[in-house]
Amino acid sequence: MIESVLVANRGEIALRIVRTARELGIRAIAVFSEADRTSPHVLAADEAHCIGPARAADSYLHAGRILDAARRSGARAIHPGYGFLSERGDFAEAVAGAGLVFVGPSAATIRAMGDKTEARRRMAAAGVPVVPGTSTPLQSAAEARRTAETVGFPVLLKAAAGGGGKGMRVVQRPNEVEDAFAAAVREAEAAFGDGSVYVERFLERPRHIEIQLFGDSHGNAVHLFERECSIQRRHQKLVEEAPSPLLTPAERERMGRAAVRAARAVDYLGAGTVEFLHAGGEFFFLEMNTRLQVEHPVTESITGIDLVEWQLRVASGEALPLRQEEIPLRGHAIECRITSESPFDGFLPATGTVAALELPGGPGVRWDGGIAVGSRIGLHYDPLLGKLVGWGRDRAAAVRRMGRALGELAIGGVATSVPLLRRIMEEGDFRAGRLTTAYLEEHPELLADDLSPGELDAFIAAAALLEDRRRRTIAPPRIGRAGTPLSSWQRSLPGAWAAQELRRRPRERESVR
Question: Which of 105, 235, 337, 403 has the fewest CB atoms within 10 Å, i.e. is most exposed?
Answer without folding.
Answer: 235
